[in-house]
Amino acid sequence: MHKALLLFITILTISGVAHAAGDTQADLNQSAHQHYQNADAALNNAYRRLMTILPPERQQQLKHAQRAWLKYRDAHAEFQAAPYKGGSIQPLIYSQALIELTEHRSRQLNALYQDESTH
Description:
The protein has four helices and no strands. It is mostly helical. This is Lysozyme inhibitor LprI-like N-terminal domain-containing protein.
């Protein structure tokens, strides 16, 4: 129980999801989901931008890699949230996993863009 509470507090702190003390779990879940949607939009922008500078063969490689990565991201988020299945915190844990992985992938794609655009 203490481990779960510590994890919950850490997630809220890292994600910037924490709000006023009166927020409900549903509010926190919704806020985390919105944060994920913003991260996903940024990822899509980074992907599209990178695709515009790649030759066709590399575009196909990136498309294949991105599809595989999306499957991994979703499966990993489900894995991380599984211990909380049925609990009100489960959507928050799931969204936080999606946020973390999606923001990391955006950084990767942006770095690839920088590398590719200098060649």
